[in-house]
């Protein structure tokens, strides 16, 4: 099998470390053609839809893409900003803030890039750019706190597929999950309290996670259990009683049974039971996106009000909150351990001398 051409290399060049913050993805524009391209790539992933390929190809290309792309584009139009897709904008800002935070903590020269599993900037392209920049140690940091085969494992698939035809593969570290990491739970806690300090506290806190088919739980996917643990830890930090909050799952797709209880029916039932105000947070999303800004803040709000509820509050995602940037830096640091990212002036001088010696030796050898 032919390997791709390696970038030019000078012997003695100091290896560099990098972190790639990988989010799900987003269309390039809120238009039907752009959404169709995005959905085709996303829904063609066998990690996302575990249906026999031929059957699913017919469903996807003859039913979903022709009829759903336009409706999805209209939804994206309701949340699109002047800077573009909220998910992409927030992920870009998170990556920049993480780079600054790591530098402030003494990690010099660690590059931080953002990439998308589907759409742009594509993960393989970002990995190629890092190789060209001399990064030989890479941490892959998914934007998903809870592991699922439908999300995190799909990132691993893309990483391994990319390096299958690369001769000089960098050292890789993969962050599987951080659903119970103190920095992540602290950031969720601060986000909820900040909302309550400004708007008061509702009668019920709804923690809505993205859903997956129930069969994945039965087949061994830990996602459901990790969502429940996140919810328990957040409730404990907020000092909530069991009756003060409820865990739900949103974004159901198709006719199969998904993880329950479903968010929209649960919120509507709360309204029918006399709950006048609910606060909804989506802990599984680190950046606001279509599923939070349109599905929850618009559609689920409508369901709540139509059932008799009076006051619906959506609590924004972590986005670029200072506590979350600190939490991300702590998670990243744990996976940078052992790599030379923190150097004293004497160490920097020694590395420069080693690099110069390496170049001189290479020249003498005719390399």
Question: Which secondary structure elements does this structure contain, and how are they paired or packed?
Answer:
Layout: E1 16-25, H1 32-43, H2 53-79, H3 86-104, E2 111-118, H4 123-132, E3 135-142, H5 152-163, E4 171-174, H6 182-199, E5 204-210, H7 214-218, H8 223-238, E6 245-250, H9 263-272, E7 277-281, H10 290-306, E8 311-315, H11 322-336, H12 345-365
Parallel strand pairs: 1-2, 1-3, 3-4, 5-6, 5-7, 7-8
Question: What would your notes on this structure say?
Answer:
By secondary structure, the chain is of the alpha/beta class. The protein folds into two domains: 181 residues, Rossmann fold, CATH 3.40.50.1400; 134 residues, Rossmann fold, CATH 3.40.50. 50% of the residues lie in helices and 14% in strands. It has a four-stranded parallel β-sheet with strand order 2-1-3-4, sandwiched between helices. The protein has a four-stranded parallel β-sheet with strand order 6-5-7-8, with helices on both faces. Helix 10 links the parallel strand 7 and strand 8. Helix 6 runs antiparallel to helix 11. The longest helix is centred in the first third of the chain and has 27 residues. The two termini are 26 Å apart. The mean pLDDT is 93.
